[in-house]
Amino acid sequence: MKELGIKEDDPRDLTLTGGLPFFGTPLSNYSLHAIINTVESIRTNPSLRVMVIANGGFNTKQSIGIYGTKPPIIPWGVRDDSKTQESILKKILPEPVEKANG
User: Which GO terms describe its molecular function (predicted)?
Assistant: First the structure.
């Protein structure tokens, strides 16, 4: 909570849907329910800006949507991160541990 700038005694809910990643089974459209709750909240309070984060079924596939009634202060821009990705892919990964020790 500290990292988000939220005090421990803040009375607001941290999530709109409880923070669970699925309804008993993986990939059961949970993110759409979060988006629907977000839209309902924004309709009630148009000054809100709400961030919905979701997992695409793999930990490597994340999505983020920021919803509100006003355009962003800084317009969205497309970045070319290909050089960064290229440098990541060039790094040598450690060998996997075949048998845990400890």
Answer: acyltransferase activity
